[in-house]
Amino acid sequence: MWRHVAPAFEHTHRVVLFDHVGAGGSDLAAWNPGKYQTLQGYAQDVVEIGASLGLRDAIFVGHSVSAMIGILAAGLAPGMFARLVLVGPSPRYVNDDGYVGGFDATEIDRLMALSDEDFRDWSVQMASIAIGNAERSELVEELAASFCRADPAIARHFAHVTFSSDNRGDLEAVRAKVLILQCSDDAIAPEAVGRYVHARIAGSDFVQLRATGHCPNLSAPEETVAAIRAWLGSGAGVGE
């Protein structure tokens, strides 16, 4: 998912890529529903990776729900991450009183029911919503294929954990420098969500991308790279 972005930083940074347990090339035997009942389990894995590599003052780049995993990891291991790049972050996907998350509870229920009934169809629908660029069918197919490479039971469990999570209370505790990259016309993490995250993380920087959809790392890698590089080079951030 980062193949168009990561290489741009390999000549200036040590780049570490990994698959969350249960996805990609990870060891499926390492997954258990108890540990991964919440996003904390995934955050613990990030900290273990960082500890094994001796990371200090590192930069964590996370997309969507992984942005929240990065926030949790930074809280678990103070000093490990000096900067967080949050691409399309969402602390809660379900609308609440005074909060726009992007989905009604009934919509989430329907999506979860579809994943149980027809995982392939669910993968295509979710990929289509995430990419958000109707003319980029090749990206929809790629993202759907990545969903389908995961064990269906694990993928459904992760989807449930993701869409039922509520990490709004973790935002104000963030002490790292933070860049929020917000896509335009993002159906999964609308602009109101990005603005919410920005308002609750003191000193954070917010950048509105021209890219549409939820996956600029796939649909607009050049703009994504440029925004991250400008922020890292600025010392503090690039502002609005």
Structural write-up:
With 240 residues, this protein is an alpha/beta fold. It has one domain: Rossmann fold (3-Layer(aba) Sandwich). It has helices at residues 39-52, 65-76, 105-117, 119-131, 137-149, 152-164, 191-200, 216-219, 221-234; strands at 58-63, 81-87, 177-184, 205-212. A four-stranded parallel sheet has the order 1-2-3-4, with helices on both faces. Helix 1 (39-52) crosses helix 2 (65-76) and helix 3 crosses helix 4 (119-131). The radius of gyration is 17 Å and the shape is globular. The two termini are 26 Å apart. The model is unreliable at 236-240 (pLDDT under 50).
Please, how many domains? 1
Helix content: 40-55%
CATH architecture: 3-Layer(aba) Sandwich
Outline: globular
CATH class: Alpha Beta
Low-confidence stretches: 236-240
The biggest beta sheet reads: 4 strands, parallel
For the record, give the distance between the C-alpha atoms at the N and C termini, rounded to a whole number: 26 Å
Give the total of beta strands.
Answer: 4
The CATH homologous superfamily is named: Alpha/Beta hydrolase fold, catalytic domain
Strand order of the largest sheet: 1-2-3-4
Q: Predict the CATH topology.
A: Rossmann fold
- Mean of residue pLDDT? 90
How much is the radius of gyration in Å? Answer: 17 Å
Order of helices and strands: HEHEHHHHEHEHH
Beta-strand fraction estimate: 5-15%
Structural class of the helix and strand makeup?
Answer: alpha/beta
Q: Tally the helices: what do you get?
A: 9
